[in-house]
Design a protein that fits this description.
4 helices; 2 strands; flat; Ald_DH_N; EC 1.2.1.79; succinate-semialdehyde dehydrogenase (NAD+) activity
Length: 90
């Protein structure tokens, strides 16, 4: 993300291995992100129902086609059993 200078590591609780590095926002950066999300929400609300449905259908198809990868990531990130992570993705 532009302007982010600090990050923190996300660790696999089972191995301690670093699996990701994510932004560590200060208060101003967090407020700016919330403002951008609010703006995006207003933009989303201004689109047609058909357009939103098309986007959500595409998102759903991507979730299904990547379900196993997402479940594995949930397991690594949270230590959740894989069967539970798969159910969560479903």
């Amino acid at each position: 993300m532009p302007g982010v200078t600090r990050t923190f590591d996300v660790h696999d609780p089972a191995t301690g291995q670093t699996i990701a590095r994510v932004p560590d926002f200060d208060v101003q950066q967090a407020l700016a992100a919330v403002a951008r999300a609010d703006e995006a929400g207003r933009s989303w609300a201004a689109t047609t129902t058909r357009h939103r449905a098309d986007i959500l259908r595409t998102w759903y198809e991507l979730m299904l086609s990547n379900a196993e990868m997402i479940a594995l990531l949930i397991t690594r990130e949270m230590g959740k059993p894989l069967a539970e992570a798969r159910a969560e993705v479903s």
